[in-house]
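User: Some background: our group keeps a shared notebook of sequences we're curious about, and every so often someone picks one and asks for a predicted structure to add to the entry. Today it's my turn. The entry only has the sequence so far, pasted here. Could you supply the structure so I can complete it?
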Amino acid sequence: MQDARGTYEDFCLHSGNTEDAPPLAGVCHARGANSAIPPIWIPYFVVEDLAQALTRAKEQGGEVFDGPRSCGGAQQMAFIRDLDGATFALVGS
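Assistant: Of course. Here's the predicted structure to add to the notebook entry:
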């Protein structure tokens, strides 16, 4: 990753031994494209229909505070804060 202050690395935990395996969680610097995301480990939940899952999350009181946005390939992701302030991401198409 890179922003006006220079280059840096964000991290993603995958379910297998390669980056091609589905992502399980990530932690990002609160910089650049990820400046709205808290610098904590965030679990990812893969969903079939991201738009439908986001609608359901909002109906249940969740706040979509970043995204949806591309996370590589055809997949999109969005970051949600639940009623207690916990953060998680939904990943889908």
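Suggested note for the entry: The first helix runs from residue 50 to 59. The chain has a mean pLDDT of 85.
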